[in-house]
Amino acid sequence: MSVITPQRQAAQAVNAPAPTAGIVASALYAESDLGMAAAIYAYNVVPAEYGCYVRSGTREHAINLQNILDEPGEVRSLLYYHAATQITGSDEMFAVTDKGIYDITVPSTAPVLVHTWTATGGNAGWCSSVNFTNVNGDHFLLVCDERNGYHIYDGTAWALGAVTGTSVPTVDELAHITEWQGRIWFTRRNSTQAWYLAPLALGGDITLLDSGNRFKQGGYLVQNTTWTLDNGAGMDDYLVQVSSAGDVLVWSGTDPDNPTAFSLLGRWFLGEVPKGRRIVSDWGGDLVLLTRAGLVKLSGIVGGESTLTDQSAITYNISRLIRNELSKSFNQFGWGLERHPEQEVALVTVPQTASELTRAPIQFVMYLETGAWCIYRDLDIMSSVNTPDGVFVGVRDGRALQFTGHADDLNLSGDSAKDIEFSFLTHFTDLQAPASWKKPVFIRPSWLGSAQPQYNMKVVFDFNFTDLTTTQPASGRVGGVWDAGLWDAAVWGITAQTVIETHGVSGMGRHVAIAVKGRSNSELSYLGSALMLEMGGML
Fold it and tell me: Which of 90, 115, 288, 387 could form a disulfide with 101 if both were Cys (CB 3.0 to 4.6 A apart)?
């Protein structure tokens, strides 16, 4: 009788985690310590703590926002008036094009133009704003436009601001606005000059603070902003000025009219900043600046970190990618930096050059909880604003959209939307056997969602970056869509379910990675995969 000798199992299981570390373009793909937990690219998937979820969808809020050609045009700014009352419906929202200001407080297919710019076209429509209460307790929305200057909204009507004094700029030269220590501060266009009003004043005499002699690198004043910081003796507000050439001045004190109560705390060089006046953002007690080096925290620079290397930048993991985009559109309006806590992300808007309008637009996105990066694609975002109702964005084709739901471009009538296409490629790994061939047998991905995921998945080898083919349209969520489904007809309360599938794999190589491309119109997260493979010898 023959004896059957047990054979050792040739295949072995390997855990392939979801790329929750996000895009890591700062490491060699094969040598990254993160392995498949990092991504070479990640489009429309957000790397979170427990997996990668498909980004939020968008719903139309206002359309037909027209430019000077009377056709849907770039929504360059979104403004929000926070009323000083708890009465429902008192807040208002506005969208701005190079033609003027539109009221988009309520969803509309034909928003009303409430203010026409005196100077249309050109750089009109790129605005900064401040909600401000004057000495009488009246509340206002104060706006400075890049071309048309200082404007005031009093809750009822828009009006041109007024300033007085000797040798002062004209109102249309006031290109940026901020508030510091109860005063309104302006940036004069094409100059190194900051001008400020009396405390709690909306107009009247303005006073000059010219910082040109302190800008060692030269350039013009881009913007003034406020930095709230604990200096060891309690919280204090500092005035920060940024020049186009990259000098940053930090002022301390309370009264710029009193030399003993206002002084220069320090001066630092962070590198040139891209065009526009949205390159500084308040990130919960710190200021973050967008420069040629990427995103840099002011607290780190003041604390002694070097600005000469990418390691000091928040964008270190995507430094190569963001530098590439900066090199193409550095001198173009549209760069912006905004933190959106409601979405748990920070958004870096990237303008497209005229020669790239056929390319899918991209935005760099950081998940705030972990600092991991991904890229939003197919959203041509030019402006954004945080509101009590969520995050709204202005796009190139004359629309204002709200981040909500799980499909893109849900129209105002709620009967048409587009799937969100997503894709990612993990880092390649040699599985600690760089000379050995790996032959995968099958892969078993795990998904969490409210509908069957629609995707293609492939194990790729040895730095093959070929994109996967498109996928079939998503099957759709089983339950009703809020604000779109019919009451007493749609099914509510559908819970997310885990979907685990097994796919056969062909091919072999020394380094392996996982590529995924799919589409979705419902809640969906990728949790990771189990990979079964055979390990060969050294060939």
Answer: 115
- Tokens matching residue 426: 């993990």
Nearest residue to 533 via CA among 75, 16, 3, 1: 16
The residue among 292, 311, 298 whose CA lies nearest residue 239 is 298
CA gap 155, 31 in Å, rounded: 58
Is 436 exposed, middle or buried (CB count within 10 Å of its CB: 0-12, 13-18, 19+)? middle
Q: Which of 297, 185, 294 is nearest to 241 (CA)?
A: 185
Residue in the block written with tokens 């909600």 = 131
Torsion from C-alpha of 164, 166, 172, 176, nearest 10 degrees: -90
Query: How many Cβ atoms are within 10 Å of 483's Cβ, its own excluded?
Result: 10
Q: How many helices and strands (H and E) does the chain possess?
A: 2, 40
Task: Look up residue 4 and give its DSSP letter.
Answer: P
CA distance 345 to 375: 11
The pLDDT of residue 98: 98
Question: Rounded to the nearest 5°, which phi and psi values hold at 301?
Answer: -70, -45
- Distance, in Å, from the CA atom of 502 to the CA atom of 524, rounded to the nearest integer, reads 18
User: Is residue 5 predicted with pLDDT exceeding 60?
Assistant: no
The structure tokens listed for 125 are 């429509």
Asked if pLDDT for residue 24 goes beyond 90, the answer is yes
CB 484 within 8 A of CB 410: yes
State the chain's mean pLDDT as an integer: 90
- Cβ partners under 8 Å of residue 312, min gap 6: 293, 296, 300, 301, 305, 306
> Which candidate, 128, 256, 151, places its Cα nearest to that of 198?
256
Residue 479 above 50 pLDDT?
Answer: no
Is the torsion defined by CA of 196, 198, 202, 206 positive or negative?
negative
Does the pLDDT value for residue 309 go beyond 70? no
Q: Locate 68 and state its tokens.
A: 């000077």
E strands in 231-356:
235-243, 247-253, 262-269, 280-282, 287-291, 294-297, 336-340, 345-349
What confidence tens digit (pLDDT) does each residue in 201-256 have? Answer: 999 999 999 999 999 999 999 999 999 876 544 568 899 999 999 999 999 999 99
Residue 510: DSSP 8-state: S
Quote the radius of gyration of the chain (alpha carbons, Å).
26
Q: Could you read off the pLDDT of 123-155 as tens digits, one per residue?
A: 999 999 999 999 888 999 999 999 999 999 999
> Average pLDDT, stretch 480-493?
50
What is the value of pTM for the model shown? 0.91
SS (H, E, C) 417-440: CECEEEEEEECCECCCCCCEEEEE
Provide CB contacts within 8 A for 455, sequence distance 6+.
471, 516, 517, 518, 519
Please name each of the domains of the chain with its CATH number: 11-55+421-538 (2.60.120)
In 3D space, the residue among 181, 146, 186 whose CA is nearest the CA of residue 169 turns out to be 186
Closest CA to 314 of 297, 330, 326, 338: 297
